[in-house]
């Protein structure tokens, strides 16, 4: 069993756990979460890696003394060794911290929680104190971030900005994948630069393939009928 000495001090006491009010967002908020969940899940499965991808799963982050743990519920988290399966929570001491956390901005939480890196009530400080190496925030409607993305990562110097590369992608050192905004979605690319499909795209691809097969079958049937006619059959 993994054991770590993570215990947040009294400076984090005013942090407010996520609740139904903070988790429920607009259709664009939920759509961006689902696209990330599907893209990261497809990436892990495609690479044959034991990733666990959580969708608004509760994190248990212990505090000093006998205080109850902090319990944020990030929109997306990725743990690289837990493997897929049902979980109701993730304990950063017993399970180890996730490699990446992503929050999709909504007006209720954007400024005071998701983006607030200056004080302990903000999620950037909480996630860093919990030992999470990478934290990315996505703004699907560009209401708070004109570039739609802001991110941080842990380094030997502490928490530092996580900046995009020359392609405009945020490359995750922890996962070996990259992220780039595509309208109201944040898309996932694997290490070979392949865009990871989401469910709607997969359904469209299957439907297009089935239409192509049906068109081919009709063409073959028409050619066979013409051949029989020419033979006088």
TrEMBL record:
This is Putative restriction endonuclease domain-containing protein. It comes from the Bacteria. Residues 27-140 form the Putative restriction endonuclease domain. InterPro entries: Nuclease_put_TT1808 (IPR012296), Restrct_endonuc-II-like (IPR011335), Uma2 (IPR008538).
């Amino acid at each position: 069993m993994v054991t770590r000495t993570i215990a947040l001090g009294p400076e984090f006491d005013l942090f407010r756990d996520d609740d139904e009010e903070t988790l429920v967002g607009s259709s664009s908020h939920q759509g961006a979460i689902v696209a990330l969940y599907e893209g990261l899940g497809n990436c892990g499965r495609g690479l044959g890696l034991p990733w666990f991808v959580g969708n608004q799963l509760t994190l248990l982050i212990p505090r000093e003394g006998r205080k109850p743990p902090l319990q944020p519920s990030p929109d997306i988290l990725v743990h690289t060794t837990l493997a897929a399966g049902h979980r109701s929570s993730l304990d950063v001491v017993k399970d180890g911290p996730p490699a990446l956390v992503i929050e999709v901005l909504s007006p209720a939480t954007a400024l005071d929680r998701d983006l607030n890196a200056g004080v302990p009530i903000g999620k950037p400080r909480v996630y860093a104190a919990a030992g999470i190496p990478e934290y990315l925030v996505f703004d699907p409607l560009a209401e708070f971030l004109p570039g739609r993305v802001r991110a941080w990562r842990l380094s030997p110097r502490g928490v530092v900005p996580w900046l995009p590369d020359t392609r405009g992608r945020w490359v995750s050192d922890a996962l070996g994948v990259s992220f780039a905004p595509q309208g109201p979605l944040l898309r996932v690319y694997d290490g070979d630069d392949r865009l990871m499909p989401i469910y709607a795209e997969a359904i469209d691809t299957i439907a297009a393939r089935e239409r192509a097969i049906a068109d081919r079958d009709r063409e073959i049937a028409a050619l066979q009928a013409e051949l029989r006619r020419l033979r006088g059959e």
